[in-house]
TrEMBL record:
Signal peptide: none annotated. GO terms for biological process: terpenoid biosynthetic process. This is Terpene synthase N-terminal domain-containing protein. GO terms for molecular function: terpene synthase activity. The keyword Lyase applies. Keywords: Lyase, Magnesium. The keyword Lyase applies. It comes from Gossypium gossypioides (Mexican cotton). Residues 47-224 form the Terpene synthase N-terminal domain.
Length: 278
């Protein structure tokens, strides 16, 4: 099968401008008295007219070879989920599938895995002992899926005054994982909330001083712009596909499935759009 490419249409960004009378609540000048000069928004002509919508190609919907390939890849990934033994590798695989927008294909397997990890996380701690990255990743994924995890799991990484231990200041993978986890705290939980400011400062310093590890650098930059928990999953998947492709440790099977699935889903949306405009 030929190499798959994501079909992506970039739409123009629109800047919003506000007059002083709108943005300043202390401005006493009435709208009638103000001499407002409206700026042109420079809107581009819409490309989504009837002819364009009807001309969209939907090969990924009508060509059975794509569906058959996707089905085969899903079974291979399902086998991966069942064969992985190490808890950290399981969590990393689940996190990757989520960020690539593939997790909905494997809900049963993911829920079973997280349930087992949640049940065994107290009795089995060797795999995450003194590992900030593993502890924070487990915390975030379990919280995302509704499992109860106490914030006290992070106390071993704090010094006497409640700051992140200085020995962890260069563990940028762990700090990034902690930063993302800090956005899933509950009201009244202060450990991660207090640590977030220092962690963000350390990550910003990392961006200035380190560009050798492109994959991690892009993840840190992306997280500081907006944390993962606040992003729209489908748009995140589109961004992460490009980033994951640059990861030297990427799984080619998962990457191929992610690209294929994205194109199939997008083609279905385009087909629906054609239908409602006829």
């Amino acid at each position: 099968m030929e190499k798959l490419l994501i079909r992506w249409v970039k739409l123009p960004k629109v800047k919003l401008f506000f007059s002083a009378s709108q943005s300043d609540p202390t401005n006493k000048t009435s709208i009638e008295d103000a001499n407002i000069t409206r700026r042109s928004a420079n809107y581009h002509p819409a490309i989504w007219d009837y002819d364009y919508v009807q001309s969209l190609r939907n090969d990924f919907v009508h060509d059975e070879s794509y569906k058959e390939r996707a089905s085969k890849l899903k079974e291979e990934v399902r086998m991966m989920l069942g064969n992985v033994v190490d808890p950290l590798e399981k969590l990393e695989l689940i996190d990757t599938l989520q960020r690539l927008g593939l997790s909905y294909h494997f809900d049963a397997e993911i829920n079973k895995t997280l349930k087992n990890i949640s049940t065994d996380r107290i009795s089995t701690v060797a795999w995450k002992k003194d590992n900030l990255y593993a502890t924070a990743l487990e915390f975030r994924l379990l919280r995302q899926h509704g499992y109860k995890v106490d914030q006290d799991v992070f106390t071993c990484f704090l010094d006497d005054v409640g700051n992140i231990k200085s020995s962890l200041n260069q563990d940028f993978k762990g700090l990034l994982s902690l930063y993302e986890a800090s956005y899933l705290i509950l009201e009244g939980e202060t450990i991660l909330e207090n640590a977030r400011e220092l962690v963000a400062k350390l990550l910003k310093q990392y961006l200035k001083e380190n560009k050798d590890h492109q994959y991690l650098w892009m993840l840190v930059d992306h997280a500081l712009e907006l944390p993962l928990h606040w992003r729209m999953p489908r748009l995140e998947a589109r961004w992460f596909i490009d980033v994951y492709e640059k990861n030297k440790d990427k799984n080619p099977i998962i990457l191929e499935l992610a690209i294929l699935d994205y194109n199939i889903v997008q083609s279905i949306h385009q087909e629906d759009l054609r239908y409602v405009t006829t």
